[in-house]
Specification:
The structure is a homohexamer. Chain A has a 4-stranded parallel β-sheet, sandwiched between helices. Chain A is of the alpha/beta class. The longest helix of chain A has 24 residues. Chain A is globular, with a radius of gyration of 17 Å. In chain A, helix 1 links the parallel strand 1 and strand 2. Chain A contains 7 helices and 4 strands. Chain A has a single domain, classed as Rossmann fold. Chains in contact: A-B, A-F, B-C, C-D, D-E, E-F. At the A-B interface, helix 2, helix 3, strand 4, helix 6 and helix 7 of A face helix 2, helix 3, strand 4, helix 6 and helix 7 of B.
């Protein structure tokens, strides 16, 4: 039984200090770590753009319409099926891709084979275990967590050194009730929401490990599932 | 400036004790309550089916594909725009309609005019204020909250008396990591997840009021928004 | 062998005297009456909007594009199929939904299981039998027939009393060659075409009964069909 | 102000005696006759296939899905608009293309510029004036009317002589309530419904002329329309 | 095993001397010639419009969007399949329909049954064998080749005499690197690219024959294919 | 005036010796080289999958349907437009993406701003100038050219060293008339068509440079274009 990890990234501003491809780097790193834990699994090339319309107030976003994302994800999954892959895990690097849940549910009607991850619980547990200073809800975008992971990836030479530490600035914006209506801009002057000044590559290493650990538990369940 | 509330319901099993149209009744009741608070607003007829593929293991679900939901919501909104309505609030009765967030963000690129509600915060606050015994996350489907609202609506004569109290049964299923992959069935024998035995029409009345109150605060902000 | 009745309504002006949801009320009432005649049948929640672009000259219309209607109808039918329903009757309350015929024909290529009703013959016979004063062709919209059915439904308490008898006005507009091009507006100042002043709840009761009777005959044939 | 006539044909069996392209020949002939009456007008090449799923029981049908027909008609109309054409008349040769009415209404929301013809009234009047023996409703397919027009077109050398008079056979099938569900096959052994034995090229010439005359009156109105 | 030839034409300017339907005439003539060589084959009615956006700078083009062309071609092919046809040859008269290759490849995933022709090699060989004065790359549009075939078809009475020899003019425009970006207009004042003054009906007869011969060889291979 | 290079890659087998992402690496390298020549330009993340249905006979292909590719390319281009980018160059690494030409032509109807490259001429000239041993037509897939570029990219450390030189094997398959119908498999046992044994990193460096040079000339024209 084959297993594929399909990372879904995004291209959107991540404050002045992180690259626009941050979500893609993170999705890919998680998928890569997961793949090492599961023999007979592999990682599909990352989809580098998805639903980023909420970042339109800042330069740099490339957004696919929801119908386009649905088509791409279905086509990739159908290609994997044709190769004989029986379980497919979408590794989503961009919180705003809510519709992935609907895509999975729709495809799973006849057999359970598509699974979206990480979920909120995975993130919460990983933040806790990696001892980050705050919850992901307040550290939502380009904050302590994402910046830490990027610092770690730079240290490992996995991505080139493009983080500029001198531009770090924390933005605390705990309530964002109109985010889906008015976008990020009104809630942050930098583009980030969270606490990047608290980031460190050590935290990033831990956070990434814990995300992979948490998700692995659910993937194990998914593989063992008999429904 | 006109304001419209557009309830999104669903048609899916709600345990042996609640009607399959429960989410539609709730969405419609919230929208109706909101409309009373906002002069110059009105309520659009409820969309009675949406994304319910996770309930396929039980009889009674009618599900629209994600692409269909996108088309319906866009067409209704465009018709409202043509009438001169400038702010549109989607009142979502079914937690599984994740993609509504994406639909809104995509339509709001040029101007903020579509808003999805209630969000998680609204539900959490309303559960607290109405003094329900547990969080909505554990009382997810046809539990204390939904059953209470339905009891209230029956008492008010708004919906006919179809709830059968002798079939109540609580199901505690706090962790459902594979829900999107394997559906509801493996997590509940009755179809419900939560605590319907604790329901009362008094709680339902309060919960509905608090939901309307919480959402109203955000709608006020949305109307006052100058972005 | 299960049988489902799926009412297709609309949301569009029906003159100053009838509610914009008139077609939905009528479709639902016919479907409900039909269901009582056929054991093992049930009624799906009414689709409350469809193709009403010809009413754009008046306020109140919500219109779905043709492609959207096709998707919704196909999805509902496929959900019913999945439940094991083998015959599906679309009960169309809005004359302008011509495309339902094409949707049915396309779905029936492999097996005959979708049927659109009432057809013109059903309406003509019912008008005759209920002794309405004129043909449905001249009493096309919010006229004697529709107003009578609404009066009947109000009398029965099925819909709330929103008809305002003091605003009745007959409009005779027998030829409307450009209706599809220029819409209703040029053919009627009130929005209605027909003779609402002649309406009565007694006629409405009869008309509804006769429609149900006429359609039942065809549904019997449909169920007995061996093709 | 330019005017274009866009013939919509079909490819489907027309009994043993008429070619499968009969509807296309008729649509094209009407369009061609109309164009001669209107200076500054022209005829677009005929769309040779449309919605013929009801003929699937016989060989020879090529059918486009409804969504495909919508796309083709919209694209052709948009191309004509780009050329500066301001009024477009769809000349429909195939009765089963109900959805053309919806396509027109949807495109006419902002300005009335698309018009579908002939309507039922045009056909009825033309049948009467050409003194055909029966109504078009009973002479629905490959009957006296269509066969007569084809005989006329053969006589004129417009189409090659492919009608085989020795295979004529009348089929009277006045009631076809389940046509959209079960197709043509159960209502006719030959594929035709109507009275081809009564056809003559003289009747065909008259019928075609009268159709063109009747439609011209409406097209005049359409051109003069100020809505 | 049935075989169908499906001609894909276009509607676009072909200089002042050739009709806008030139590509359709040529596709149809090739298909007709091919069909005579293969017993049990037949010719589907020509699709008279396709992808002609590059001719928008001149009057007369009707263009279908790529998604529309995909739908039409798929629907026609599926209708042919339903009739039992097992091999389908698209005979493309318009060089700009690049996407036909993708449509074929996508449909051939499970079994090889759709084939697009003529390819570049067929055209090159036919130009050589018919002793045309130049390569098709320089004689790209309404040039020596297409004009010759049209002259031949006129001589045969297959199409009416609409070529106006006094408007012939050669345009040599060998390099057109930006054609897909800026269209035909900047590369030709007449709309043609090539050498129509060198055309003759004799060359047209030969060219058509050679095209049919060349394509036949590949169709034979296609029919004999066991993959 | 901004300029963006958008590389279109693919994921498909490239013989036993090259990675399945070869086309993506090449598209990205060309785009990167082009961007260095044009100030104020940038490179969009590579689309890593496209139309690879012809490789289905071998493992490893992920294919997007044509309609999906159209949607993705349109969405990316529309996002770039929104950022103010006025010229967009698609850098296509996969020969089988014929439809990109149609996508560009369709989007260029109102203004010329989308351009697909490299074209056949660019490849031919670059092969010549880099002194490859044979034409690209015979060295079509994973041959001397692609292998050389990959060797060069490995040498530069741009991609990791995954080429396995001991598995090289030349396959000469100059005629592939049925490729679109039957796929690659019948024309090659290794998956490659061409002469990888003749590859060298020096040739790869030259070939890449010459491709960039050739394309630059056309991009200059495109930027200077006043149509």
């Amino acid at each position: 039984m084959g297993l594929a990890f399909f990372p879904i990234g995004s291209l959107e501003q991540h404050g002045p200090h992180l690259p626009i491809g941050t979500d893609s780097f993170i999705a890919q790193s998680i998928a890569s770590g997961l793949s090492k834990k599961f023999p007979n699994s592999f990682v599909v090339p990352t989809l580098p753009y998805s639903s980023s319309f909420e970042h339109i107030g800042f330069p740099g976003a490339i957004s696919l319409r929801s119908t386009t994302i649905i088509s791409v994800v279905q086509d990739v999954i159908h290609s994997l099926e044709r190769m004989g892959i029986q379980k497919i895990v979408l590794v989503n690097g961009h919180g705003g891709n809510y519709l992935l849940g609907n895509i999975a549910q729709e495809m799973n009607v006849d057999k359970p084979y598509v699974f979206v991850t990480p979920n909120r619980h995975h993130w919460d547990r990983a933040y806790e275990k990696a001892e980050l200073s705050i919850s992901i809800s307040r550290d939502m975008h380009a904050g302590e967590g994402e910046t830490s992971i990027l610092l770690h990836l730079i240290e490992e030479g996995i991505i080139p050194s493009s983080v500029k530490p001198d531009k770090y600035m924390d933005v605390d914006s705990p309530n964002r009730p109109l985010l889906q209506a008015i976008g990020m801009r009104p809630y942050t002057s930098t583009g980030a929401i969270g606490f990047p000044t608290r980031a460190s590559s050590r935290k990033g290493k831990l956070l990434l490990q814990e995300l992979i650990n948490q998700i692995s538990i659910t993937v194990e369940e998914f593989l063992g599932d008999k429904h």
